[in-house]
Amino acid sequence: MKSIEIDLHKELKKYFGFSQFKGLQEQVVNSIIYGNNTFVIMPTGGGKSLCYQLPALVLEGTAIVVSPLIALMKNQVDAIRALSSEIGVAHVLNSSLTKTEITQVKEDIKRGVTKLLYVAPESLTKDEYVEFLNSVPLSFIAIDEAHCISEWGHDFRPEYRNLRNIIRKLGDIPIIGLTATATPKVQEDILKNLEIANANTFKASFNRANLYYEIRPKTKNVESDIIKFINLFKGKSGVIYCLSRKKVEEITQVLQVNGVSAVAYHAGLDAKTRAKHQDMFLMEDVDVVVATIAFGMGIDKPDVRFVIHHDIPKSLESYYQETGRAGRDGGEGYCLAYYSYKDIEKLEKFMAGKPLAEQEIGFALLQEVVAYAETSVSRRKFLLHYFGEEFDEVNGDGADMDDNSRNPKSTKEAKDQVELLLKTIQDTKQIYKSKEIVLTLLGKINAVIKSYKTDAQSVFGAGKEFNDKFWMALIRQVLVSNLISKDIESYGVLKITKEGKDFLKNPTSFMMTEDHNYENTNDETIITNAKASNVADEVLVSMLKDLRRKVAKKMDVPPFVVFQDPSLEDMALKYPVKLDELANVHGVSEGKAKKYGKEFIDLITRYVEENDIIRPDDLVVKSTGANSALKLFIIQSVDRKLSLEDIAAAKSLNMDALLKEMEQIVYSGTKLNINYWVDDVLDEDQQEEIKEYFMDAENDSIKAALKEFDGDYDIEELRLMRIKFISEVAN
């Protein structure tokens, strides 16, 4: 198969400017390239889009991407077009196109130019489109936001339910399902509905370690609290979510009056205004968008620094999805939600008129939100547990990044109560949800308890010395500790796990944390995010951002399509002054360097000259950190006297990155005999001259050496000699 010949790392660098895949990306890309049905569960910011974009760009034929929102499709298409010289590389096919535009799209597909075709599910119901797509080579079909298929998902869309029937009409084509949020229940639903039970499933960690989670009580001064908070993030992008259109408008006006540049976004605005407001946000003409969830999936801006929930969402999945809009570039991301039980009661009222099955699902999801808001255990642990993932709240990545972890509440021994709880679940035959278990413990009757004659059992009323809040809090904590679980099939029914059975046989200490009581307000302090990004040269970053905004406006694309924030920050660390140096900056592909690079290089060059900046010697791509296997490979290859260029190529490194690894090896005390290579680069006298310099120098700084030799030697030559020197003299 052709795919075997594809050098994925080379293609990744060529199209996206990255030297390394992130997390599970490489495995997913391989699965798709080999024509397998593939199911990807990857959180927002995890690089989900690249998983299907890269295979689409390198495989023959056109990939169909089903997406629920026109705005999102537009963003994706803009981003793909920025990577290629061919504008037809990505197209949208939906109701917003004219006949002429549709003809152009079809022409580009026939010519084999279009690699990605974004469609709404409704477009695929049209016979003419299905007929046309059947006549051209297709590589695969990707269903983005696949949770829309599931009634248990936070964003169920009936038109998604019919996708499998449509795909059948397109013949035997690999199906790729992708979602950024899915509980075990939703995952099962997606696989079943798409009929891809055999799919290669990849589930990335849902842990977004750079996000800080905080819940505050919602007081009557919530607007002033929000303004105070935003003022701490002056000039940074943020999103505020409200549940109603009316509230969106109110909050927007309050912010504008108080000097915050903000726009509103909700479904009640006409399409033109919505698009305008979204573009203003993307183009950095305004800092804040106040929105309903209509804005949720339509935004793909990597440098959102805070997400505020004025109203608590209807499900934890919505909450996770919406908070996931923050810090997608790995930088600071503050997620603040204001909580009041009154809001929950409002949401319950909204559900009253809906069908019974829908109500049941809605209430179950809402209870999870209440549990999350009121819990005093690690919020990260609670969230990840909800998505079926374990988390070490002491040593895990981002363990201290929530208000409960920073300000732990007092604990008390609850071994006996846990034992009673488990015994109650066991004695009632594991058929009840939390509500019935709590009623049983309190000795209260409802119709369900009466029908099963639970009121005649010994556990009935055995826990009435504690109130319902205590028992609900204990159930949540016992769930998170994995002593009980919620059944997937009949969602919400409590079952005892193996660990729970072991606890019953041999009860051990269980320290219960007191839950928050949000009826009283807590202190006003704002904890700043400890993981905020550090930039070497803030002034230059600000200048680069201004230039990016101008270039973006000229090109009519969002600023992040030109270069993302981490790329600008890397430029401010490395000061690249040549195009080939720019290609070594994190996230800058060859195509991007050629397309946008000149103005940025000119600016940095001027800045370096005007400020007498000595550029660092390590113009390398930020790597994920050296590992021992790589070091061993380098040592063995040098021993075999292999060309350094060949060693670098074998591990998809550039020369600078290889030298960095070699420097780490010799500085950690291991000899590297690179004479065979140095002798080809420098003659004996030159080597002696540099060696003498290092012998007498105060330190081993390459900057200082460059200054000393005043252009006689380049950085690479000096670095090679430094490696040889340290290896011979120090080791």
Explain how this protein is built.
The chain has 731 residues and is an alpha/beta fold. The chain has five domains: 2-203, P-loop containing nucleotide triphosphate hydrolases (Rossmann fold, 3-Layer(aba) Sandwich); 211-406, P-loop containing nucleotide triphosphate hydrolases (Rossmann fold); 422-499, Arc Repressor Mutant, subunit A, CATH 1.10.10.10; 538-610, HRDC domain (DNA polymerase, domain 1); 628-730, ATP-dependent DNA helicase RecQ (Arc Repressor Mutant, subunit A). It contains 34 helices and 17 strands. The strands form four sheets. Strands 3-4-2-5-6-1-7 form a seven-stranded parallel beta sheet, with helices on both faces. Strands 8-13-12-9-11-10 form a six-stranded parallel beta sheet, sandwiched between helices. Helix 23 crosses helix 25 and helix 32 (684-696) packs across helix 34. The longest helix has 21 residues, at 590-610. It is globular and about 100 Å long.
Strand arrangement within the widest β-sheet reads: 3-4-2-5-6-1-7
Taking all residues together, what is the mean pLDDT? 84
Q: Give the name of the CATH superfamily of the largest domain.
A: P-loop containing nucleotide triphosphate hydrolases
Distance between the termini: 48 Å
Poorly predicted segments: 520-535, 617-626
CATH architecture of the largest domain: 3-Layer(aba) Sandwich
Specify the CATH class of the largest domain.
Answer: Alpha Beta
Number of strands: 17
Q: Which fold does the CATH topology of the largest domain refer to?
A: Rossmann fold
Q: Number of helical segments?
A: 34
Shape descriptor? globular
Helix content: 40-55%
Strand content bin: 5-15%
